[in-house]
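Forum: Protein Structure Q&A
Topic: Joint prediction for protein chains with partners

I've read a bunch of threads here and the consensus seems to be that you should model interacting components together rather than docking separate models afterwards. I'd like to see that in practice. Below is the full input, 599 residues plus whatever partners are listed. Could one of the regulars post the assembled result?
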Amino acid sequence: MNNNFKNFPWPKTRPTQFFVLALLAMIVFNIIVLQEEGRRITTYKKYLPHQIIGHQFAGLEEFTKNIEFIGYYTDISFEEGREGPKLFSHAQYSLAPTILELNSVKHDYILLVCKDEKNAWRVMQQIGAKPLRRNKFGYILARKEKP
Amino acid sequence: MIIAAYLFSFLIGFAAVNLTVRGFKSLSLPLHILLSLGLGIGICSLLTFFSFFIFGQYQRFVIIGLSTAALVLLVILNFRQSRKNQTAFLAASFSIKDITVWKIIGCGVWGVLFFGIHFLATQNPYGLWDAWALWNMKTKFLIFGGQHWTDVCQKLHWHTHPDYPLLMPFFHTWVYAIIEKQLTFIPFVFAVLLAMACGLLLYAGLSPFIHKAPAYFASLLLLGNPFYAFMSTAQYADILLAYYLLSGIITIVYFVREKNNHMGLLAGIFLGLMSFTKNEGIVMALLLFILTSIYLFIKNRTNAKKPVLFFTIGLLLTMSATILFKIFIAPANTDILPNLTAQNAHLINIDRFMIIKNGILQELFNRKWCFIWPFIFILIVLRLPKFFSKESAIFTFFFLGFIGILTIIYITTTTFDLVWWLKTSLARIYLYLLPSILFLCFYVHFKKETNS
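Posted by a regular:
Agreed with the consensus. Here's the joint model:
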């Protein structure tokens, strides 16, 4: 094994020395920021463990298995804030490969994700659907009754 | 089990690289290994795609059978060619005497950085929003969707980008076919592995052309950047795109510098894989292909046909998947193409141009990048003319051309709010360009000239 330190290519000219110093400064700066970031993450993770994507809809996939489409009804506006799109994406991820059709109640199964649960019950009454499953977040998977 | 899957994919890639670059002595073992990793991922993904295309749905044993057949075939071809040409079985060379104390220390530092990258990745085991809501969700469709797997392109909500190519989800599907469990763990391992491998590829790609010390520092600069570590482990396809772009550029340098047609074939293969990774990959692959071909025709007017033919064959080999996907499965792009082709497209829109310019500058100087972009800017300014000399010119014109195309797309696309779009997309663009731009800067500053 060759351990001759004299072979190491120490920079010889001034510009090269300056360049290597700048490069090393960048690398040291990166490592300091990385360390700070690590410390910050470790601190907040003590209080907030990582998010499980789609946990609000866990268990519903058992009911939607083998169904290609279900409707998704929500009273949360997609224009204001990220809550609406976030919940929709979580539900889609969680229930894939079933496709959620946004704000459509034409399918046999409808997932109702409402801030005000009364809205969900009102819609179910209008379309003649009955709740199949309601979870602790108040989200309801409903099925239309056959005429 | 997941290690066994990656080893299987790697062996396919290794045999394919070995077969392609046979007789090319300058390829180092680290570079051979890292190119094999990328090519293995690409081949397994394409085999999975073709199995879906032919059999109409996820068929575990078809995928495993095809991959095993590919590996066996590649090994047989390697043996046959080795016997026929009376050359060593391995194209790459390695000697135990090459190991020095400095190399052991260097590997130790890489090991520490790997733990840093892994730690950051564990904070988002599902990846960031677009990773789980787009890429990983599409993987679920491919595996569990049966014959409805094409729904990812036709019936899903528009925010999932139904026209995006699917190399990464098909590779995750391939890994799932091998291990049949840990669906959320597969993209996590993929992201950590590629984030690290991209830095190592930067070193392995630079070290044949420049002194090893600056090549090593370049890799430290990339791997030690906290925002690179964060974004590359977000489970987006951008890190894969970065990997293929860098692989493509390294093999093109070999191709044009050493005039090795087999490296041209490999370069074409990597460009084709890039086109199946993301839509931007199609633009980048075609742009690099055109610029390299023009360079070859300018440099060797009479002898350029054969190298360009090799390059084209390589490109078509892997781009065939993108062509099939775009013609038969993917819907037309509704966000960008109609605006570009519209007769009343407003290409000269000063307001939008100013917003784009400000967005680009803000991202360049954003503290989250730890000032790596101003550093790169200084490197460029210090040797600006060299960036336009010889083969470096291909890549300089490529980056300028790509930035130009992106600017036109940003100006003409009115489907999204421009400020929001810049905010969400620029960091990813910078991510997949960063390893290749670092490669170019270090290559221009430190390259050893060949006699030829």
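The CA atoms of residues 132 and 142 of chain A lie 5 Å apart.
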